Structure formats: structure tokens, C-alpha cells
Amino acid sequence: AAAGLSYVGAYVINTYKSYDNFLQDKYALLPAVIIICVAVVMFIIGLIGCCATFRESRVGLGLFLAIILVIFVAEVSAFVLGFVYREKIKTDVQGTMRSVFEEYGKNPESAFVDYLQEQLHCCGVKNYSDWTTTQWFNSTGNNSAPQSCCQQEAKNCTGHLDRPQEL
Q1: N or C: which end of the chain has fewer CB within 10 A?
Q2: Is the model's pLDDT at 24 over the cut of 80?
Q3: Could you give the percent of the chain with pLDDT greater than 90?
Q4: d(Cα 92, Cα 145) in Å, to the nearest integer?
Q5: What is the 3-state secondary structure (H, E, C) of the chain?
Q6: pTM of the predicted structure, to 2 decimals
Q7: Dihedral angle at the C-alpha atoms of 32, 37, 43, 47, nearest 10 degrees?
Q8: CA angle, corner 26, sides to 25 and 30, nearest 5?
């Protein structure tokens, strides 16, 4: 279980590196760090439990049970906090994404926006109409979204908003 949690925490931190332009709040990594810390503690406690069982120590097994209960309460608390604050995180991420999309075409982050849209098969923050409020859209004057919005199977897609089925 500790190895599995360590893998999940490391995977989240590694994935964060790909999207850190959108997640300016470093507290987004807090759940992953907590998961890794819990995994380390679980490993140590597992060793204590094995030693207590091997030596048949009542005190050691009682301590092991108490620690396991504390960890269970901590995990339930982390789940509840994640559930309670999910909307705040969603709002923060969308706000940051809108600001990055607003700067599209002006800085090196434009390539990241294209990469993100291609990898996640999405267009805009919510949909392709988000591009109509950006400065890039107004400056190009061609009534289109970036070509990274095009579906991979759409041939000859230009990003025009009059053909939303291709986006």
C-alpha cells in the first residue's frame, strides 16, 4: 500500500510539471506531498506492526492499532478537505487558464497552450467559444480558434468557428 501511494504521489508531482503554467498556486501540490508522507509513515508503521507481531508484543500491537486509526482519520480528513475545496481549485485553475489564454500569441506560453489543447483534446477553458474573448481572436480578425483546437481526425481544419464540429 505504501509503495502504491508513493507511486501515486510521485505521478501527481511529475504530472504537475507539465501543467505548472496553469497552476500558479503551489498549494496544488499539497495533496501529493501529503500522500507521499503518509506512504512513508505507513511503511515505517508496517515495519513496526510486523516486528510487534513477530515478537507477539501486546503493547506493540496496541500501539500499531492506535497509529493505524490515526492514519485512517487523517486520510478521511484529507478526502473531506479535497471534496470541500474542489470548487475553489476549479475556479482558481480556470481563472489562471483564462489569463494564460488571454496572453496567447504574445509570449512563449502560447506553445504550451497549443500543446495542452492537443494533448487533452480540448479547445479553450470550457469550449471553443472562450477564444472569442481573447485579444488574439480580436487581432487576427479571421473568426477562428488556434489550429491546436482542431480534432485530429478533421482534415483541412482551419479553426473557423463557423465549423464547430471540427473543433
Answers
A1: N
A2: no
A3: 2
A4: 23
A5: CHHHHHHHHHHHHHHHHHCCCCCCCHHHHHHHHHHHHHHHHHHHHHHHHHHHHHHCCHHHHHHHHHHHHHHHHHHHHHHHHHHHCHHHHHHHHHHHHHHHHHCCCCCCHHHHHHHHHHHHCCCCCCCHHHHHHCHHHHHHCCCECCHHHCCCCCCCCCCECCCHHHC
A6: 0.51
A7: -170
A8: 120
AA letter at 21: N
Is the pLDDT at 23 greater than 60? The verdict is no
Give the start-to-end residue ranges of the domains of the chain. 1-13+25-166
Give the Cα separation of 4 and 6 in Å (integer).
Answer: 5
Per-residue pLDDT of 120-142, as tens digits, reads: 788 888 888 888 887 777 777 77
Q: Return phi, psi of residue 72, to 5°.
A: -60, -45
